[in-house]
Amino acid sequence: RALSDGDQILGVIRGSAMGQDGGSHSVHGALLSGLEEAVARTLAVSGVDASEVSYLDGQGAGKPEWDHAELRALSRAYTKKATETPLSCGFGSVGPNVGHGHPVSGMASLLKVLLGFQDGDLVPSIHWDGRAPQSPAWAFDETPFFPVSKRCRWEKVQGTRIAGISAFGLG
Asked: Disulfide engineering: 41 pairs with which of 17, 24, 130, 154, CB 3.0-4.6 Å?
């Protein structure tokens, strides 16, 4: 209907999922299993192969143990689900740019992704200068991701741009 009404469409949310393991001792205690399961469910309901995802905006909580766990969980989840070609996916986090507001972190990432769709560019997170940003937790060489360390063209994969968003909440 939006198309027939002439509305501008900035993006389409093709799938989403939540993960929770129940009794964690902290906000991020269940990160690995819960996040891996949520990514698998999201890819399944969206009908997207992980190899089609060309950008991922992560939470980037700023705590080394959480950042490392997030990157490991996302790496495992996306690597397991990439069936077509080896995954090479840009990775950033809007969190350092706007602050880490748990309730709105997903919305901030969504706005960043929509602007990227519109401009056709990937923009860096602050403090990411091509080396691991402030924390050895961001060991990108062990993942299918590369840090977006400077503004660059967001290349289309199979004619489109597809992004993933990793955002944490309380629960």
From this structure: 17
In whole angstroms, how large is the CA radius of gyration of the chain? 16
Contact by Cβ (8 Å): 145, 76: no
Both tokens assigned to 154: 């967001």
Cα-flanking dihedrals φ and ψ of residue 89, to 5°?
A: -130, 130
Would you call 149 helix, strand, or coil by DSSP? coil
CA dist 3 and 22 (Å) reads 41
Q: In order along the chain (171 residues), what is the average pLDDT of each group of 10 residues?
A: 91 86 57 80 91 88 72 83 70 79 80 94 77 60 85 91 83 52
Predicted TM-score (pTM) above 0.90: no
Crossing angle between the packed helical segments 64-81 and 31-46, to the nearest 10 degrees: 40
- Residues forming beta bridges with residue 169, ordered by sequence position: none
165: number of Cβ within 10 Å: 21
Q: Are strands 55-57 and 121-122 parallel, antiparallel or unpaired?
A: unpaired
Give phi and psi for 164, each to the nearest 5.
Answer: -115, 150
120, two tokens = 């056709």
Sheet strands (E) in 42-93: 55-57, 89-92
8 Å CB contact between 50 and 87: yes
Rounded Cα distance, 122 and 112, in Å: 9
